[in-house]
Amino acid sequence: MLQWMRHYRRSMLPGDISAGIVVAMMMIPQGMAYALVAGLPPVVGIYASIVPPVLYALFGTSSTQSVGPMAIISLMTASILTPLAAPGSALYGVLAAQLALLSGAVLLACGLLRIGFLANFFSRPVMSGFTIGSALLIAWGQLPALLGAAPPQLHAASAALGLGALALLVWARRFLAGALQRLGMAPVAADIGAKLAPMLVVVGATALVAGLGLDRLGVATTGAVPAGLPGLNLATSATHWQALLQPALLVGFMVFLISMSGAQTLALKRGEKLGSNRELVGLGVANIGSALSGGFPVTGSISRSAVNFATGANSQLASLITAALLAAALVAPTGWLALLPLPVLAATIIVAVLGMLDLSTLRTAWHYDRADAAALLATACGVLVLGVEAGVVVGVALSMGALIWRASRPHIAVLGRIAGTEHFRNVDRYSTETAPGLLLLRVDAGLFFGNVEAVNERIEDELAAQPDTRHLVLVLSAVNAIDTSALFGLEELNTSLRQRGVLLHLAEVKGPVMDRLRHSTLLQALNGRLFLSAAMAWDELAADKA
Question: The whole model's pTM is what?
Fold first, then answer.
């Protein structure tokens, strides 16, 4: 906070004020709706939108990050807590805050220990599959609230209100910005107007419920919302710490990944640099603050952060203004919030989460790397069939499995010289010349225990295909490391080739690799030579007629 306040200028204030107001208007329906997804009373969503952004503004590094409830984290919260307590019960609320506390502690510890790199084990396809599966799961879970009854049954008044709101929100999402532009509104202002459509629909529906007495006809509403700011919450369940610890690790990492994905995109547009470990600290403290104020796990919202950016947020002051306005909304009379119709809140949730169904990653992965596409689909299906946590584990396992499989089968190219040059290329891709008795192989991966056997098998295959080979040159220009298992494999290869009258040579060995090889016996036992380049090996060995 000291950093951004030190550079704050008066000219930045109008943008921060406008962004703070707009995001606060978005947060009221979103926060309440996402609390329902998490299985909590709607007001808890507003509680989780006040203290966390204030604490993030103190410790975070993004000037446009909007921290608060988010659909996917709310779904994860519900899936973790539902087996432990009944949604809506007092224990359930205690466990939600306890999960936020543990998740925050995990994030804070990772930030202080500077181990944010662990989040890199969640690949982009796995994240996309998780988002798709979660979005479908959330949308399906909102159908009973949307229709006023479990499908295929419905409550006529509730369904009419919910489906009408759904249709209006879908239209607003697709066409409202364009319609506003045609009326003469600037593109940025039109886009902001479209983003505020859920708030306007919720207010209009609430007025409709109050005017027509729809609540007396069976339309479910949020009910009484307690006025006043959240108090200090220190309640915990001593018997559930262990049960929540492992899920809290997963929630913490997902909070970080979701938050960073949106914040990094906006930071690049503004030329800002985010500190990943400082972000971990900011998000960790925000979640601890949510727990202490009776909230649940929170993260940076991609959609709200984008609106924050578009409406002119220049610093974290915008988030402080948003938090202040939400606190004021709770201090003011909250009677009108009691008539918010749940079918309309369900419609806002469905439209919001279905907007996360981005299939572009699946299309790209399908054409570029089927293994990544399989990991994406498996993650999405795992979330739908097995649940949120199991789905993520399946996706990460498949993604890591594909990585290990690729590393265990490195690409190895037979090289030839492009005539008249000192350039050597794959003989299967270029028109090259080769020399009798000389075999050049380029290994395009680091050598380690998982692939040394496959490398030796490929070498034996190439030697069998060229039985007149007298010189084998391993071009190691793409090898960044050789572990102990691979070192023993090379020594065994060297011994085997010596017995067959084939000389083993090494070329283009990188400096760090050479530094480690000097501490081994391979270089002394090598029956061939070390060459600085493949061209030097060619000049020396291609003329060898012995």
Answer: 0.76
